[in-house]
Amino acid sequence: MHWTLRTATSEYVVGLFGETGSPQALALEYWGAAGGATGPWPKPAIRYSYETPADLAPLEYASNGTRHVHRSELLVEHDDGLSGAVWTYVSHEQSATELAVLFRDDTGRLELVQHVLVRPDSDVVERWVDVRNVSTDHEVRLGRVLSAAWSVHAPDGAVLHYPAGSWSHEFGPEAVPLRQGVLQIGSRYGVTGHLHAPAMTVTVPGRADAFGVQLAWSGSWTIAAEADPGGLLRVSAGIDDETTTVRLTPGRTFTTPRSWGVWSPDGEWGVARAWHRHQRLVNPRATDPYHRPIVYNSWFATRFDLRADHQLELARTAAELGVEAFVIDDGWFGTRSSDRSGLGDWTVRRDAFPDGLLPLATAVTELGMRFGLWVELEGVNLDSDLYRAHPDWVYRVGDRPLVTMRHQTVLNLGLTAVRSHLAGVLRRLLTELPITYLKWDLNRPITDPGPADSEWSVAHTEGYYGLLRLLRDEFPHVTVEACAGGGGRVDTAVAELADVVWTSDETGPRDRLVIQDGFLRAFGAHLMSGWVTDLPGSRFPEPVSDGFRLVTSMAGVLGFGADLGTWDAARRKAAADAVALYKELRPVLLTGDVHVHGSPRSGEYALEYVTPQRSVKLVWAASDADVIVTDREGITP
Ligand code: DGJ
């Protein structure tokens, strides 16, 4: 049995591995250009012993008990001590865009459904599984339950490209050759994280094409690439198995998040363009300019030193520049005059705004801009009314001392009481004030989950998604900027449920260019929020022109974060001109196909955004930058 799924330009072919009576599974047969040679999967480049047939096959999803030598995506342990699963094909359903294949295990207690989904206008293949306990009296423990494995034939090894960095240096492009062994990236602290985003691209020396893998998940996650000596490289992706154990009680089904895979004939940047297109497709708001306003955010200008009259002054200047949304960051609530107190108390800070926020919000609206606020809904200072009232709402391991960072801890979003409290906070804030922009931050990892709660990261992530969905359903006019201490919450699930992401706390332009270059390898420009500030870069502090800074922020969703009160008339005029130009070019910059020339550290670098009508080239050279617009002949832009 074979099943073929056609994407926009490629083909994904899977078949049934294993005869009746022996372990069965889905195996990849072909992944490449539509109409390409779909012969059998190449035999291992060398002969070797000990591996079983299932270990040598490009299995789409493997379990312990079926695969013995190499990694499996699913680890099964029954409550009577039996471990592993041996599957038999039961049935399948297929349409032009979807395949679902059902397997049953040899105990008759478990069912596995493998899903494959494609869309005619994208080259991305989405895959996930359901694991169902159909027994009435046995609990089954899943020590690992990943979403999918993606196979690539790489007889001489492959190069793995992935985002690697840290706070303020996110998305640094890393490239590591792998001939044999395992390379694993991930997060085990409940948030997507700064170290890596869940994305990996595979290139094979001597070949021009490339394969990409992503995971649409914002909690703890893992992506592991394993290369065997016979030339099979499998990249598996899913929820982190170190911090998550799923207990399948009788009747329960666990559905994994989706993993995205893509093949591109055009190498790493071809994969990137396919990701961008798919991210725009799965988010119905992705191409809506309303949800990508030019923001002024006052964080870098004022930090916690918030005063109503000063914010209004900044707002007036921002409006002169052509800014579309004025956003007050951290510090507007509770007793939050520093990061030591008030987090969790979402009422207006009276020493900063004695008359409340309504007069400022109204003035901002009258200036022709939208009004926005920052929140860190999951965060809570120990010195806050919320923590004093509900110390049992935060993560805590038994009675061990809490690990605090930035004087705060994290609310357990797995608790219904916490979710309804935060839903209430959102509903109140968004109805009391004319807020149309919300920046949702999280400034620390989750470190203290309860020991008995082995699904805390899943529950937390679902709680986060639930609140994002509430925003979308009940407040569709509110734009959401996702953030976790800069770019710590950037993944394709966030790309679907939020509008933009705060890319990094590093706004120094040379550093930023490097971060953005890495970001764009996995995520679209329509998500990449970037403010123009006056701050020097922490790694590459050499000065640059204002034009360099402006063009750097124009590469995605333009914004401003400088203390505009210190800008003279000439700087304001230059910024206003850049804003006007950006507004004209925005459709191309946010939806065009991105092509990259040079490297941001080589001295000459350009990003070219191409639509059928127009191409916009942003060029950086030495300490200056330029914008070159080319209209296609005969086509009116
Ligand atoms: C981290 C964010 O990345 C910043 O932009 C800012 O919102 C601070 N948190 C505020 O605490």
UniProtKB/TrEMBL annotation:
Keywords: Glycosidase, Hydrolase. Coiled coil: none annotated. The keyword Transmembrane does not apply. GO terms for biological process: carbohydrate catabolic process. It catalyses: Hydrolysis of terminal, non-reducing alpha-D-galactose residues in alpha-D-galactosides, including galactose oligosaccharides, galactomannans and galactolipids. Its EC number is 3.2.1.22. Residues 27-248 form the Glycosyl hydrolase family 36 N-terminal domain. The keyword Hydrolase applies. InterPro entries: Aldolase_TIM, Alpga-gal_N_sf, Alpha-glycosidase_related, GH, Glyco_hydro_27/36_CS, Glyco_hydro_36, Glyco_hydro_36_N. It is an enzyme of class 3 (hydrolase). One of its GO terms (molecular function) is alpha-galactosidase activity. SUPFAM superfamilies: (Trans)glycosidases (SSF51445). PANTHER family: ALPHA-GALACTOSIDASE C-RELATED, GLYCOSIDASE FAMILY 31. This is alpha-galactosidase. It comes from Jiangella mangrovi. The lineage of its organism: Bacteria, Bacillati, Actinomycetota, Actinomycetes, Jiangellales.
